[in-house]
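Wed. Picked up where I left off yesterday with Gll3997 protein. The coffee machine is broken again, so keeping this brief.
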Amino acid sequence: MDIAFGREVCCDLPSAQKREWLVTNGLGSYACGTVAGLLTRGYHGLLITALKPPLGQTLQVAKLDETAQYDGRSYPLFANRWIDGVNPEGQVHIERFSLDGAIPHWRFACADALVAKQIWMQPGANTTYVRYRLLRATQPLTLSLKVLVNYRNHHGRTRAGNWQMDIQPVADGIRVKAFDGAAPFWVKAAGAVFIPSHYWYRQFFLSAEHERGLEPLDDHLCAATIECTLQPGQELTIVASAESEVNLDGPQCLAERITYEQNLLQAWKSAAPDSGADPDWVARLVLAADQFIVERPLPGTAPGKTVIAGYPWFSDWGRDTMIALSGLTLATGRPQVAEAILRTFAPFVSRGMLPNRFPDDGSPLGEGDYNTVDATLWYFEAIRAYTQSTGDERLLSDLFPILADTVDWHRRGTRFHIRQDPLDGLLYAGEHGVQLTWMDAKVGDWVVTPRIGKSVEVNALWYHALCTMADFARQLGRSASEYDAMAKRTRRGFERFWNPGAGYCFDVLEGPGGDDPTLRPNQLLAVSLPNSPLGNGYQRAIVDVCGRTLLAGCGLRSLAPGSLFYQGRYGGDPRSRDGAYHQGTAWGWLLGVFVQAHLRAYGDRAQARGFLEPIADHLRDAGLGTVSEIFDGEAPMTPKGCIAQAWSVAEILCAWQRSR
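Structure written out below (tokens, as returned):
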């Protein structure tokens, strides 16, 4: 599909600043910005390097402020917002913006001259390329680019004060070292003049952070001005890198990036020969899927693989990784990546649990990092999907002892009061002050949706894991009787979830306030998972009530309208946002779950696929070419949260694949 905009979007600041682009390198580093070229987030920048890959993201190069000198006139091609307004408004010169594959591409009109600009990252390297070409002109055009740099965590802000960075001229550019002990970085270009400088631009106003109730002011250092005069047909490539030796040949590096993306699409097409009939937006999501897959170093071995949960602010999370694995890798024809992820996480299983997240600072895992009841259960499903897709019994044989030990831990009890109830076979989980399910918002000591007790989706996953273990045992020639018996008991126990008065499932059994009849989308997993504990009549009832009450465009509401704590708008300061996060906010990943549940309940592929149609339009909004984390629960269901969320992309790809 064509993701492109003319002046009606590009020159209109409110429209252009809400549309964001993202490029990544597979190491956890990224570059991100707006169509307008305006910084609206602290996460916007040209080189944000994962110094402790895949984490430790540090803003190093914030932006290039470009001015074109042509026919005696100056044309600012950039825009900046200050505390007192926007100046200059260079977006008025953008004639067209397009997303070519995953590469953002601008065209600026300066009278009769036309300047093209592209941005991409080199896969596997902490290097960003910014390429300018003079496509059309009747005389030379001079580009003057101010290089704005920084050195801070991407979550933070800079108050420069008297901060002095060390800026040194080097061949073809400059070297920047922010302070003693900081990792140096370079900005280079062949055939251009670099004029080093050192003056701070203070109080950039970040409007998106202001809307989120966070600090909106930031400072950036102008480290150099780059000047180059282009004749018609000539080009200039600026290279920003955390590596001293880089290839400065822009056309060659762009060709390599395009080949990389073409190989991703070819792997998908080879794995799905009937993909030729898919709508173009599916191919867009195949490219988007790659942005989340990154390396995670492992001691004494080659780097493993993991999944960044969402850009721009999430790290790699156990739950998100296992939910997203099938869609990001198997649905895109990359089973080798799936195997690497599964093996990467295996050493981190502790007391039958996968970690919820890895600390952002790269410190060792602590007990508190295992605050998830469902990540490990999703690990069973990820291994099942991989094994079914590949027939690889070697990995299954290697990991089976870990899975068997995990079942044993859950049966006898592990952290956070997670244990199987011997009376009904269901899993109980939770303790005061700890959030364990995917509805995990917490503000200070306030756990917004604690869900202590026997949660419906957790027990759907538990039943599925037991059935899967029985199948694994048979596949490996081992006895499955124990797992069969446990699954049978759990299925009988699951009948307790049905609420006959409401016509759908309780969300939680045996919570501190008793059984919770709140209508939430969690019960859809009892329908969508390959092993369902429910009969078809119950499956259809759940799908119907969720469709009528929770479906909201590109996602499903996390709580039914009319419920006591329902909030249909997500916004405000952190406490307000977290208070709405799972109390009515619609989630993109749940749309994929709903489609798979609908297909299971009704068997109508065309009707199930129809629910995915809004995604095609969404790819032209918010994070371009990808899927947002969340949406308002009320019209117009505005995208919110992360502009690119791994499990949103993954579950939609899975839903499309299974309904194809």
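Quick read: Residues 518 and 564 are 9 Å apart (CA to CA).
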